[in-house]
Amino acid sequence: MHEPHLDRRLFLKGTAVTGAALALGATAAPAASAAPGGFPDYTYVRTLLTPSQLAYNPTGEIIFPTVRGVYDRLPASGRLGRYYLYYAPHDAPGGICLAYGDSLEGPFTEYPHNPIVSNNWSPHYSVSHVSSPHVMWHAGRKEMWLYFHGENTTTRLARSTDGIHFTYDKVVLNTSMLPSGTTETSYARVFPHELPSRGAHYVMVFMVNNTTNHRDIGWGWSADGRTWTFSQEPLVRHGDVGAVNVGGPHLLHRNNSTYVVYNKDKESGGDLMITEVGNDFSLRRHLGVFYDSRASAPENGRAASPSFGTDHGVPYMIYEAGERLAGSIAMARG
């Protein structure tokens, strides 16, 4: 049931010589230039989703995209497209949403029955909002596992065989599992990753806040993706990279090492940063800017919460572009 180290469909891999990249199941051609760590140098192409163009638009904002290839995972008879793109408003009531398409270039079509998960799910919870959907394909179970927050103190898990209709599972993270004074544990992403010394097959990265109101990147490990142990120290501290806040983390793997990519707050530059943590998470090599946000629209000095995929050999990054709670979901090509 356990997936191999960093499932090749979910991570970018390669070598410094070829610059090859694998994500969502394809081999990419060499990039013209490279970001730190030898990753592709991504360039903004277009927006994919804009709140004003969506039928379900309770708050005028959307955040935290996750893209997953489903073309060889879900039965063709019930599949809406080759790719599923999950996203959500953040402010109340939020709501986990789905769009689908046949190319990472777009277009993506809004699922007509959004939200697929709401802020009220009796008898499991009733909260002000749910948001930050991250979906992981669990190869052993042949299920889509949805991690999402609501409230910001709590990260939850729901599971699905079709990527649309989910069954509630459990709370996987809340502030009580971190040191006293922790006020937020949210924006989590989960990845297959082997940590033999910890008996773990999955790693979680997430945003953690405390009473100082400076956000860091936290992390944890799990044997099954459901029951977790969490480090009591941050993986990346905001001050280590000259930021007021950091968040939106995503794991990547390349050249036999593991990295975390994450965003700074706009006031601290608004860029995506990269830190090498190593396969055993013992390193803290801060490598600088992974993606330099543009001053022009739609980024307006801020890129955040990246998700990665490859379509017909071309690497893509799907991410938030624009002011916090006032942006769009954009696409950059490597």
Describe this structure in words.
The protein contains no helices and 22 strands. By secondary structure, the protein is mainly β. The strands form six sheets. The protein has a four-stranded antiparallel sheet with strand order 1-22-21-20, with no helix packed on it. A four-stranded antiparallel sheet has the order 2-3-4-5, with no helix packed on it. A hairpin with an 8-residue loop joins strand 3 (83-88) and strand 4 (97-101). 51% of the residues are buried.
Summarize the structure.
The protein contains no helices and 22 strands. It is an all-beta fold and 334 residues long. The strands form 6 sheets. A 4-stranded antiparallel sheet has the order 1-22-21-20, with no helix packed on it. The chain has a 4-stranded antiparallel sheet with strand order 2-3-4-5, with no helix packed on it. Strands 8-9-10-11 form a 4-stranded antiparallel sheet, with no helix packed on it.
Taking pLDDT < 50 over at least 5 consecutive residues as the criterion, the unreliable ranges are 1-32
CATH C-level: Mainly Beta
Shape: globular
What is the terminal separation in angstroms?
A: 32 Å
Major beta sheet, strand line-up: 1-22-21-20
Compute the average pLDDT: 91
Architecture, according to CATH? Answer: 5 Propeller
The CATH H-level superfamily is Glycosyl hydrolase domain, family 43
Task: Report the CATH topology name.
Answer: Tachylectin-2, Chain A
Strand content: 35-45%
Domains counted in the coordinates: how many?
A: 1
* Major sheet description: 4 strands, antiparallel
**Structural class by SSE content:** mainly beta
Helix segment tally? 0
H-E string: EEEEEEEEEEEEEEEEEEEEEE
- What percent of the residues sit in helical stretches (DSSP H or I)? under 10%
Compute the number of strand runs.
Answer: 22
How many whole angstroms does the radius of gyration measure? 18 Å
